[in-house]
Amino acid sequence: MSETDKLLRVFLVDKQLSGLTARLKAAERFLGEQEKQLSQLESAKVTVDAQLKQLSGSIANHEGEMARLDARIEHLRTQMNSAQTNREYKAFLTEINTIKADRSKIETIALEQMAQADGLRAQQSEIDANREDRKKVRTVADDERTKRAEEIRERVEQMKKERETLAGDVPGSVLSAYQSLYARREEESMAPVEVQDRKRHEFNCGSCMMSIPVEIVNRLMTHGTLTYCVSCQCILYMDEAATTAMQPAKR
Ligand SMILES: [Zn+2]
Prior knowledge:
Helix Hairpins; 5 helices; alpha+beta; 4 strands; 76% helix; 7% strand
């Protein structure tokens, strides 16, 4: 058996393995997306919580300040009521009015901040609801992934053993060249030669469909050494159809 034929056996197992794990990979991708969205929601929650905490602190400060001003006004009123002169009375009144204006400014700010806080609380509930939904989807996605992994586990183990045996037959340099190709091209790593017209020497690559010189086909048939398509750089092989087509016609 030529090195290309030996390599082909490994390639066919690799292709089956890729096909077998496709659903598992899709399930893993889906789970990954759910986890990403969940962590985005978690960090949005942390941000909103922090904003709300800061805002509540500020509101509490303003409320404290308003209470202090109220007490001050109350105290000035008492003093004003026992004022001895009209001038003294007016002085108290002016001070009270100044404090009232200050208090009103603080109150306006506090009310704005309370409205903002309500907005943040609404955001919190929305994020919480989304998180609950997303957690449910993630649980389903996790189960799906486990199920997919379980249903192919035995078959994958079996095929990996088979691959190991077959790969042991392939020369190391050939195998490593193939493996780096497979990492990039997967199922397009190897392709059969297609015989369009044997007599006119018309051959093409089964992957990129570009023509292949007859010398390359001859070398592949005679020596079976590692042969690349000149156009797409995949590894070429002769499949049964090509081998049959190359047989001289029998009388
Ligand atoms: Zn090609």
